[in-house]
Specification:
alpha+beta
Length: 143
């Protein structure tokens, strides 16, 4: 089984929205062969809580406006360290950079095929590390 056209459409729109809000290290995996609950995971991160919220808000707004999709579940709002949006066909994880490193979701899903992303989203790979090096820490605070 592979991700459906609808899943790919959702992933691409969400990835572009995340890139437009300057998310770091956007990646998507086709998890349809290993999970029966969803087709794809989209993972993105940001160096601070406010930006995590901004990325999530943009993804929700774009998926609703452009594709008529609303999440069936949204978790993690209060702390904005890791917000999960469940659209059934896809699950979006937007994490604070520190959580991204700590939980390393990529390691869990590395055997799943990566889904191609829009160019703007693909260009965000490595931005988290670059940002941490420029600012002196994963959370963007000078040390």
């Amino acid at each position: 089984m592979t991700a459906t056209d609808r899943s790919i459409e959702l992933v691409n729109t969400a990835a572009q929205a995340a890139a437009d809000r300057l998310a770091h290290d956007i990646i998507a995996y086709d998890v349809s062969d290993v999970l029966s609950i969803t087709d794809a995971f989209l993972i993105a991160s940001a160096p601070n809580d406010r930006q995590v919220k901004s990325i999530v808000d943009e993804i929700e707004e774009r998926l609703s406006k452009e594709l008529g999709a609303k999440p069936v579940r949204r978790e993690g709002d209060r702390e904005a360290r890791w917000i999960l949006l469940d659209y059934v066909d896809i699950v979006v994880h937007v994490q604070h950079s520190e959580e991204r490193v700590y939980y390393a979701l990529e390691r869990l899903w590395k055997d799943c095929p990566e889904l191609p992303l829009p160019e703007d989203a693909a260009k965000t790979r490595g931005k988290g590390k670059e940002h941490a090096e420029l600012t002196g820490g994963p959370d963007g605070e000078l040390r």
